[in-house]
Design a protein that fits this description.
The complex is a heterodimer of chains A (313) and B (336). Chain A is mostly helical. Chain A has 13 helices and no strands. Chain B is built from ten helices and twelve strands. In chain B, strand 9 (233-238) and strand 10 form a beta hairpin. Classes of the chains: A mainly alpha (313), B alpha/beta (336).
C-alpha cells in the first residue's frame, strides 16, 4: 500500500509539469501586451522595452518556460507583474480560504447527498424518492452564480440571517458560499448514490443477508452501503476538480479573497505568473484528491486493496 | 386442492404450504409464477421440488421466508405454516427471528450470494450474533468451527469471498445456512453452479449435516439424480402447480403424469447411446399467458378434449401418491 502511494506521488510530477506547460503556452499566445497594464498611461515604446527586459519577456518562449519551470521546482512561483510581490506569498495567503470553501461544500454535499441518495435508492417507489429526484434535477440545472444570488437575496437581504460577502464573520460567512457551490454537486452525488444503491439492493448477497435474519436497517447499513459507495466516491473525487472550477464563480459572487477570484483578477490584468501559479495549485489539488480517492477505494473494497498490494494497479 | 383427502398426520409437520398463489404484477403484465402449490414436509424428511426453469420453484422457496421480491411479487392467497405458525401473518420482527434460525436457505449461485466486502468469518458469525445473542468474539469462534465442519481451514475465516473458489464459496454459503441449526433447510439448486466433482462433495456434505442435525429439507433442483440421492419424497412442479407428488418409489417407478414421464424420458440412456434424446416437446408456457385448462395440455401426447377446458383436480392414487391429470379421473391404473 505504501509503495503504491509513493509511486502515485511520483507520478504526479509529470502531470503537474504538463499542466504548467499547457497553461504557459496558452498565456503566451493570449493576445495583448502585459506592459500596457503595468505601465498604464506612462506607456511608451522605450518604457515597454525596459519593463519587458526587466521581466525577461524579451526572451524566447522555450527559454522563458525553462526558466519558469526551474524556479517552480524550487518552490518559486515568480513575481506578479502587477503587485510586484512574490506570487507564492499571495497564493499562501489566499489558498486556505478557497480550501475551506471547497471542503465545506464537499462536506455539505456528502453529509446531505449520500443519506438522501441511500434512502431513495432503498425505497425507490416512495413519494420522498420522487421528490428528491425532482430536487436533484433542479439542483443540477441551477447555475452557481444564479443560485448564489438567490441565496444572498433570501438569507442576506430579506431575512438578514447571514452575511452576503467576505469572510469577516467566520463560520457564518462560509454557509452561503458552500451552499451555492455545493448545490450542483450535492444533486449529482445524490443521483449517483441512488442509482448505485438501487442496483446493489437487488444483488443476491442482499437476499442472503435478509435470509440470515439481518434487520432491514442493518441490511442497508452493513451490507448495501459499503458496496454501493464506489461510484459515489468516484464522483466525489471527480467533483473536486469541478468544485475548484466553480469556486471562481462562488468567490466572485460572494467577494471571498481566495484563489478563484485571484485567478479571475489576474486573467483580466494579464498577470501571467499569478495565473499560472493559481492553476498549478489547483492541478496539484486535483492530483492529490485523485490519489486520496484511490486510497479510499482500497478501504472500501478489499478486492482493490489486494490489487494494490500485488502491484497490479 | 383436496386437502381433506390427505392422509392423517403420524409425525410432526415442519412445513405445510396450502394452495399458494404468487403473481409478479407490473404495469403492463402479470407473471403467474405460483398458481396453487401444496407442499408438506414432515420433521426430518427431505422433499425434492423438481421442475424446469420458470416452474415457480424459487418463488415458492422465497415465500417460506416471506422474501418474495417486492413490490412486484404479491402473495395473493394461500397459507404457509411453519411448525403450525403462519409465516404470512408474522410481523417483520417475528420474520427476522425465524430467518436464519428456524429456516435457512442455501442459494443457487455462490458467486453472487456472498457479500464481496466482508470476510467469510464475519458473514457466518453474523447470524450467530443475531440469533444466539453472543459476543462478536464468541460468534467468530463458532463461525470458525462451522468453517472446519464444512471442510475449510479456520485460518481462512479472515479472507474475503474473492479469495475462494466456487466450490469453497458454496461451502461458505452452506456454513451460513447451517450455523444456527435450522429446523428447515431450503436448498435452492445448491449444486447447479458447480462442476460435477464438486457437486458430489457438496451434496454429500449437505446430506451428512442434515442427518447429523436432524433437519427437514426442501431440495429444489431440476436434476433427478440429486433427487434419487437425497430425497424421501418428490413433488413435480409445472407452471406454478404441483402436478404429481409421491415417495421416491412412487415417482421413479410408478410415475403417472405424462410430464413426469417426459422428464425421465429426457434423461440420456447410457445403454442406448445411439438412440436419439427425447426432450419434452415444446417449451414451458409463458407465465404471463398460461394455456386454459391443464397448463401442460399443449405439450402433452395424451391430451384430450377436456384438458383444454378444465384444470384437473388433485387426485390421491394411494396413501402417498397424488397426481393432477384428467387421465386419472376414473382410474388409478397407469395410462402411460
Amino acid at each position: 500500500m505504501l509503495k503504491f502511494i509513493v509511486k502515485r506521488l511520483f507520478a504526479m510530477i509529470p502531470v503537474v509539469l504538463a499542466v504548467t506547460f499547457v497553461v504557459f503556452t496558452i498565456m503566451w499566445f493570449v493576445p495583448g501586451d502585459p506592459t500596457n497594464i503595468i505601465l498604464g498611461n506612462e506607456w511608451t515604446e522605450a518604457a515597454s522595452a525596459r519593463v519587458k527586459a526587466e521581466l525577461g519577456l524579451d526572451r524566447s518562449f522555450l527559454v522563458q518556460f525553462f526558466h519558469y519551470t526551474a524556479n517552480l521546482v524550487q518552490g518559486d512561483f515568480g513575481i506578479s507583474y502587477i503587485t510586484r510581490a512574490p506570487v507564492g506569498e499571495q497564493l499562501l495567503a489566499r489558498f486556505p480560504n478557497t480550501l475551506e470553501v471547497v471542503l465545506g461544500a464537499m462536506l455539505f454535499c456528502v453529509v446531505v447527498g449520500v443519506p438522501i441518495g441511500v434512502y431513495s435508492g432503498v425505497k425507490p417507489y416512495s413519494v420522498f424518492s420522487n421528490l428528491t429526484m425532482v430536487a436533484g434535477l433542479l439542483g443540477i440545472s441551477f447555475p452557481i452564480f444564479w443560485l448564489g444570488l438567490l441565496l444572498i437575496l433570501l438569507f442576506s437581504v430579506h431575512l438578514g440571517w447571514l452575511p452576503s460577502s467576505g469572510l469577516e464573520d467566520g463560520f457564518a460567512s462560509f454557509i452561503l458560499p458552500c451552499l451555492a457551490l455545493g448545490g450542483n454537486y450535492m444533486a449529482n452525488i445524490m443521483r449517483i448514490t441512488r442509482s448505485s444503491m438501487l442496483e446493489v439492493i437487488r444483488q443476491d448477497y442482499i437476499r442472503t443477508a435478509k435470509a440470515k435474519g439481518v434487520k432491514a436497517v442493518d441490511v442497508v447499513i452493513k451490507h448495501a452501503l459499503q458496496n454501493s459507495m464506489m461510484p459515489t466516491i468516484t464522483v466525489i473525487g471527480m467533483d473536486i476538480g469541478t468544485l475548484l472550477g466553480g469556486v471562481v464563480l462562488t468567490e466572485t459572487v460572494f467577494s471571498i479573497p481566495g484563489t478563484g477570484r485571484l485567478l479571475l483578477e489576474s486573467i483580466n490584468k494579464r498577470d501571467t505568473p499569478t495565473v499560472i501559479g493559481c492553476l498549478v495549485i489547483m492541478a496539484v489539488c486535483i492530483a492529490i484528491s485523485n490519489l486520496i480517492v484511490d486510497i479510499v477505494y482500497a478501504y472500501v473494497d478489499p478486492r482493490i486493496k489486494a490489487q494494490y498490494g500485488a502491484g497490479k494497479d | 386442492m383436496n386437502m381433506e383427502m390427505k392422509k392423517p398426520n403420524e409425525q410432526q409437520t415442519t412445513l405445510e404450504i396450502k394452495n399458494l398463489v404468487i403473481h409478479y404484477i407490473s404495469d403492463d403484465e402479470v407473471v403467474k409464477a405460483v398458481n396453487g402449490v401444496n407442499i408438506e414436509i414432515k420433521a426430518g424428511k427431505t422433499l425434492g421440488l423438481v421442475g424446469e426453469t420458470g416452474a415457480g420453484k424459487t418463488t415458492t422457496a422465497l415465500s417460506i421466508l416471506n422474501l418474495v421480491p417486492e413490490p412486484q411479487g404479491k402473495i395473493l392467497s394461500g397459507e404457509i405454516l411453519l411448525e403450525g405458525r403462519s409465516v404470512l401473518a408474522m410481523s417483520e420482527l417475528e420474520l427476522e427471528a425465524i430467518r436464519g434460525d428456524k429456516v435457512a436457505m442455501i442459494f443457487q449461485d455462490p458467486m453472487t450470494s456472498l457479500n464481496p466486502v466482508h470476510t467469510v468469518g464475519d458473514q457466518i458469525a453474523e447470524s450467530i450474533e443475531i440469533h444466539r445473542k453472543v459476543s462478536k468474539q464468541e460468534a467468530l469462534k463458532q463461525a470458525k468451527e462451522m468453517l472446519e465442519l464444512v471442510g475449510i481451514p479456520s485460518e481462512r475465516s479472515n479472507e474475503y469471498p474473492f479469495q475462494f473458489s466456487g466450490g469453497m464459496k458454496q461451502r461458505v454459503v452452506i456454513a451460513i445456512a447451517l450455523t444456527c441449526n435450522p429446523n428447515l433447510l431450503i436448498a435452492d439448486e445448491p449444486t447447479t453452479a458447480l462442476d460435477v466433482t464438486i457437486q458430489a462433495q457438496v451434496l454429500k456434505l449437505i446430506n451428512e449435516l442434515r442427518q447429523k442435525y436432524h433437519m427437514s429439507m426442501l431440495m429444489i433442483t431440476h436434476d433427478l439424480g440429486i433427487v434419487a440421492e437425497v430425497c424421501d419424497e418428490v413433488s413435480i412442479a409445472y407452471a406454478g402447480r404441483i402436478i404429481e407428488h409421491g415417495t421416491l418409489e412412487d415417482i421413479f417407478d410408478h410415475m403417472r403424469h405424462p410430464y413426469t414421464k417426459g422428464l425421465f424420458d429426457a434423461l440420456p440412456d447410457i445403454g442406448a447411446r445411439r438412440s436419439e434424446l427425447k426432450p419434452v416437446k415444446g417449451l414451458m408456457p409463458d407465465p404471463t399467458n398460461l394455456p386454459s385448462g391443464c397448463p401442460f395440455h399443449p405439450r402433452c401426447d395424451y391430451a384430450m378434449e377436456v384438458c383444454s377446458r378444465s384444470v384437473p383436480e388433485n387426485k390421491w392414487l394411494s396413501e402417498t401418491h397424488c397426481v393432477e391429470c384428467h387421465l386419472y379421473t376414473d382410474t388409478n391404473e397407469s395410462m402411460l
